[in-house]
Please model this.
Amino acid sequence: MTKKIIAVFLTFILILTVFCACSTDQKESTQKSETTSDSQTGTDSKKLDVICTIFPQYDFCREIAGDKINLTLLLDSKTDLHSFEPTSEDIMKISNCDLFINIGGESDDWAEDVIRSSQNDSLTVLSLMNTVETHEEEALEGQQEEEGEEEEEHEHEQDEHIWTSLKNAERMANAISDKLCTLDSDNAETYQANCSAYTKKLAALELQYADTVSNAKTKTLLFADRFPFRYLAEDYDLDCYAAFSGCSAQSEASFETMAFLVGKVKEENLRYILMIDGSDGSVAESVSRQSGATIRTLNSCQSVPPEDIENGVSYLSIMQQNLTVLKEVLG
Model:
């Protein structure tokens, strides 16, 4: 259904484009209007127009390009990556931009139709899952199985949450820098210098994570919630248990799952259990009551409120906050 809606939007957009092109006067008027619009919105038509789907790659671009590009974050903090459906305005933005950066997983399937139907020959697409080694979104011990045929397909999906690994963040930042340098060679030195400085910060924080885990009393994390942290856990060989896989649509855990999680807390003598940002916390609260473990929250970095972005919240600051939580949880 989503693909049909997108196709209708694209057809409508193309008709408008052809209609507007029929008149030279209209074209000149449109150009004047666009110039005025650029002035009012603060964008620069000479700069690259770059669109990112979610916050992590948006923040990577901010660090690498600064004010050298016109940068847009497509999904706001109220929109879930896994259920996003583009509006006609979103389709127009993507079709007319210079560089579209997405994750490239199943949640971005909608983008394929937009890209394929775009009449913009200069549109460049960077799917970040192509820049790192990915893992299948496999069920962890303790996770209940979803029923129906959809689960059989779900088991073979690639886990999209690649940005939870700082090592992956370095690779993605470099890929973004390389693409910007190709599209805008005049500012290549700036992009390369900024990327080098930024990846050094990422590497320094990654070493802190490694040091924290190497000195930890326990190497086990229990998520009484969804589990978007597979890449982070695999970087440091952490043992993980969770109520649900990835960002499953499920919100209620079965009796068997709850019993397993409570039993695992006691078996491993865990003082803390985890939930993720944006969760209602119901499963975690239930496990906490039955096991006596304290709840802590890890931020998956997928979305950040606009006011927080304006106040300086960044991918690095979120991952630093997550490290503080892990130091307490791991001991």
